[in-house]
Amino acid sequence: MSKCDLSIELESGAVRHQPGDVVRGHVLVDVNDVCTCKNLNIALQWRTHGRGNRDKGEPLRQTLFEGVWRPDEQPRYPFEFTVPTGPLSYRGKVLNIDWYITARADIPWAFDPKAETEIFVHHGSYTGPLSVGNDRKHQQLQQWQSKARGVLSTRAGLVTCVLLGMAAVFLVPMLCMGIGAVIWGILEVRKDPSTGNILLLTIGSVFTLLPAIILVIFLRWRQMRRKLGNVQVAAEAANMDAGTKIFCAITFTPQASVVLNRISADLVGQEIAVSGSGTTSYTYTEEFHRENRELRSAQQLVPGNPVEEIVEFDLPADAPATFFARSNQFTWQVDVKVDIPGWPDYNDKVEITVPA
Questions:
Q1: 75: Cβ–Cβ under 8 A, 6 or more apart, which residues?
Q2: How far separated are the first and last CA of the chain, in Å rounded?
Q3: Which of 271, 268, 269, 266 is nearest to 285 (CA)?
Q4: 309 membership: H or E segment, kind and range
Q5: 198-228 and 156-166 are packed helices; what angle lies between their axes, rounded to 10 degrees?
Q6: Per-residue DSSP letters for 166-229?
Q7: Per-residue model confidence as pLDDT tens digits over 31-67
């Protein structure tokens, strides 16, 4: 038997709260034997559970007591916390977020008693900005993504040169080896048709066809990008009177005549949970929202005529806000597709923070 036991009693038994609410309660101590408590701490903290590794937020802590407890005492220690601005509680398929109030007593040379109770943090009438979980890391990731997109946009020529260099280093030698093996196999067959080297011809054909197909796809992709010109995609979330809306814009000026099937945009929300680490890690992805919009239907695009399309999505009232942690995320993004018959499609995606 431990020297004492803890329990948590919430004021009025309320477990549903919104950001900014004050959660009040008491920590009750049932003393079984005389013991010294170095400190009685209580903390409010979010934690994840599900298929991914567990993440947790920075706890809000309070020290309620330091001293000696005796069996004839029934101490009660009041506490109160102001609920932070998220993340909100969530129940998903691969990821869950829960908030816990945890009390722990540090008893020297004995088992430290602990008590825990869960509260549910919902949006309620709260209208302010929400935390995305690990805000600092999320901001760093957004800055990195913004810089990466800027580099790829402003240095497209450099990227193309790198790809062409890779083709020259790997694909062209492979193609030459394949052609050489095919020629060698044909010469062997001409010398003695009854003992033709089928294996040599097969290897030569594979080494010829594979790099040839990759080179053709790359050249057609490059030609398609030249036809469309510089494609710019931007998306953002905004809180309106009618709720949160997502706006996406796509602009480009065709440099050549293009037959268009359609231009479409998808608003996608998904849970991402990473289990394990390094080479043993596995990523679970579950879409909880997808909405498709057609921006432009089949038509002929004229060179020099700008294409400017804006699409608006209504975010569902119960949609979870963006959440970011080391192994678990809720992400929102807009996937844009320019469908060109007979050519590789242009695809791009822009991640957004919801709510803004």
A1: 28, 29, 31, 65, 69
A2: 52
A3: 271
A4: strand 307-314
A5: 170
A6: HIIIIIHHHHHHHHHHHHHHHHHHHH-GGG--HHHHHHHHHHHHHHHHHHHHHHHHHHHHHHH-
A7: 988 999 999 999 999 999 999 999 999 999 999 999 9
